[in-house]
Design goal:
The complex is a heterodimer of chains A (343) and B (341). By secondary structure, chain A is mainly α. Chain A has a single domain, classed as ABC transporter involved in vitamin B12 uptake, BtuC. Chain A has 15 helices and no strands. In chain B, helix 4 crosses helix 11. The chains are: A mainly alpha (343), B mainly alpha (341).
């Protein structure tokens, strides 16, 4: 692929082409939702699917289908949130490698939740969400600050290294906490791998307000991100208050990925892959890029979840593992494609 | 006149280097004796020495000979390996953040070891061999993927981070497949732990230090020149590709054997080099000092983990927690003078 980012930038399809891509993504998501409800460990008959979706749990097949519904919904919501937060992070740091996982933000949210469980006997999902968002905010500020010190500001290399090192440090702190508490080890491990398997509508309802506010902030700040992605000097010259715009957009990204981490555990690479893919479809205008990335993120996570149920039948592979296996090669591809100077 | 001053300067630098390396060695020896003497109970130095000489001392033979001696021996050997392997990568890639634990080499060895234990039910040296081969394959893959145009260094680091993320998720998956009663032990090992280490586990690590460490030390001069940049080094007659191949192979061997013995002890490869650089300055090569610093870190970290808190923590948790503030310091300092070393 000989395309440089600058040439992809040039691509400006007419509005109706971009709307068509959006429509296509919605169709894809609909198909994936249908597959997600029908495919699973247990093969179910058509009548059972219809009954299960409408809420009946009389037979085992119907109950299985009924459990796949919230799972699919959660995958869609979490994927959309991660996709949006990835776009924002890449936009405001002007960094092709930004992702809540790579930058260590998910690890920060995870550490905060583990500390909450272990030290304060936290159990309610709302408390999880608040703590996760605070952890994500602190970590994001920390990684961005240390990554942007020194010559050249926040280069992709420095940010990625600061994020990776922070993740390693936080993981060993998490291990330290978990090891001192035998009683919570199993539960934390399952949560920490990142999955949507245990979804229920009750939990989704608890996180939904946070994600909705985050998404609203994201969509409102689309124009600000457009300006910020021109570079700090240009943005300031255009009259943008850089620190405020960046902080506001970052708040949206943090609410989205912190909330998702609280419910699903840290899921990496969705925020990395989706924006790059969507830039190819609709260009770099964030007013289009944000909603399209949300849709694509939802599609990717539902698809990954289905894949996780198929590949190791009769058991399941958590969606966080699938996204890492898909996303890491993609990350490597981006690194190889960039010019040396840009790194 | 100037010649004499230069010669004097070199002499005093060499004296300073030897003095500092000597002090580090004394420190390692002192920590060795201290950990043998101090534990839940305190054993007198005389008894410790008699046990080491092979005498049977009532009340001390078991505690010192069976519990403390294997633990501290493996601690020192893995510390030396991690320190040496880590600093070799950092010097070669000219970036202290490019240590094997951050760029995926350790993850490769870890995933392979977990796979060998959980899926293939291997034990002992088989696991080590498996981890070394996997570590080399991972390092080779990262190296090949990053060979495109110049400036291999930067790209190696980023691609390493990607590979590392992928391998970590495989490790997570393997762990979910492990039986529940293995979980606590697996977690402990993954953090890096010396619990229940036996003396026979020290032998492979010691052998690896001899087999991989010596050729690495043989590259001291080339590595020092490589710090000036690939082009300059080539101009000064260093065969860059060959040096890099030797250094990668040896460092990966060291890391993989140490990892199978004690788990990936967090941040020891990452921390040893910069601490040694702080001590040594520009007086000489960092390889041996960094290895000694690694040994100090692992022995001290294990001691603190065992006796510092109510809960006994594995050494990796202590070194991991120490690494975070140091990382901040490193990056803040680099902002001032523009270089990380």
């Amino acid at each position: 692929m000989g395309l440089r980012p600058s040439r992809i930038v040039v691509f400006r399809g007419p509005g109706n082409l971009r709307a068509m891509w959006m429509l296509a993504l919605i169709v894809v998501i609909a198909v994936l939702c249908f597959l997600s409800i029908t495919i699973g460990n247990r093969s179910v008959a058509w009548a059972d699917i219809v009954a299960g979706v409408s809420g009946e749990t009389g037979t085992i097949s119907q109950a299985a289908v009924a459990r796949r519904v919230p799972r699919t919904v959660l995958a869609a919501i979490a994927g959309a949130a991660l996709g949006l937060s990835g776009v924002i992070m890449q936009g405001i740091t002007r960094n092709p490698l930004a992702d809540p996982g790579i930058l260590g933000v998910n690890a920060g949210a995870a550490l905060a939740v583990v500390i909450g469980i272990a030290s304060f006997d936290m159990t309610s999902a709302t408390a999880f969400i608040w703590v996760a968002i605070c952890g994500a905010a602190v970590t994001a500020t920390f990684v961005y600050t240390i990554g942007s010190l020194g010559v050249g500001g926040a280069t992709p290399l420095k940010l990625a290294l600061a994020g990776a090192a922070t993740s390693v440090a936080f993981s060993s702190l998490i291990t330290g906490i978990v090891l001192s508490r035998n009683d919570i080890a199993g539960g934390i491990r399952d949560w920490h791998i990142g999955g949507v398997g245990g979804a229920s509508f009750e939990r989704i309802a608890q996180v939904l307000p946070f994600l909705a506010v985050g998404a609203a902030i994201a969509l409102i700040s689309a124009r600000k991100i457009n300006v910020l992605s021109l570079g700090d000097e240009t943005a300031a010259g255009l009259g943008e208050r850089i620190a405020i715009s960046r902080g506001f957009s970052a708040l949206g990204a943090i609410m989205l990925c912190g909330g998702t981490t609280a419910i699903c555990g840290p899921i990496g690479f969705v925020g990395l892959v989706v924006p790059h893919f969507c830039r190819l479809l609709v260009g770099v205008d964030h007013r289009w890029l944000l909603p399209v990335s949300g849709l694509a993120g939802a599609g990717l996570l539902i698809g990954s979840d289905i894949l996780g149920r198929i590949v190791v039948r009769p058991t399941e592979m958590e969606v966080g593992i699938i996204t890492a296996l898909i996303g890491a090669p993609f990350f490597i591809w981006i690194v190889r494609r960039q010019k040396v100077r840009a790194l | 006149m100037t010649g004499a001053t230069l010669a004097q300067g070199r002499m005093s630098r060499q004296r300073g280097y030897r003095l500092r390396v000597g002090l580090l060695m004394v420190l390692v020896a002192g920590l060795f004796l201290m950990t043998l003497m101090v534990g839940q109970s305190i054993t007198p130095l005389g008894d410790v020495i008699r046990v080491i000489m092979g005498e049977d001392v009532a009340g001390a033979s078991f505690v010192v000979g069976q519990l403390r001696l294997p633990r501290v021996t493996v601690a020192i050997l893995t510390g030396l390996s991690f320190g040496l392997g880590g600093v070799a990568f950092q010097i070669m890639l000219r970036n202290p953040l490019a240590s094997p634990d951050i760029i995926g080499i350790t993850s490769g060895a870890t995933t392979a070891a977990v796979f060998a234990i959980v899926v293939l039910s291997m034990t002992g040296v088989q696991v080590s061999a498996f981890a070394v081969i996997a570590g080399l394959l991972v390092a080779g893959t990262i190296y090949l993927l990053s060979r495109k145009g110049g400036a291999v260094g930067t790209r190696i680091i980023l691609i390493g981070i990607g590979v590392s993320a992928m391998l970590d998720s495989v490790t997570s998956y393997l762990l979910t497949q492990a039986l529940v009663w293995n979980l606590q032990e697996a977690l402990r090992w993954l953090a890096g732990s010396l619990n229940g280490v036996k003396l026979h586990q020290a032998a492979p690590v010691a052998a690896a230090l001899a087999v991989f460490g010596m050729p690495l030390l043989g590259q001291t001069r080339s590595l020092e020149i490589l710090r000036l940049g690939d082009d300059t080094a080539a101009g000064l007659g260093v065969s860059v590709g060959r040096t890099r191949a030797i250094v990668i192979t040896c460092a990966v061997g060291l890391i993989a054997f140490a990892t199978t013995a004690a788990g990936p002890i967090a941040f020891v490869p990452f921390l040893s080099g910069p601490i040694a650089a702080k001590l040594i300055g520009s007086r000489g090569s960092l390889l041996i000092p960094a290895a000694l610093v690694g040994a100090v870190l692992v022995v001290l970290g294990d001691f603190v983990g065992q006796f510092g808190f109510d809960t006994r923590y594995p050494v990796g948790v202590i070194t991991g927690a120490m690494g975070a503030p140091y990382l901040v310091f490193l990056i803040v300092r680099s902002a001032k003078n523009g270089s990380l070393f």
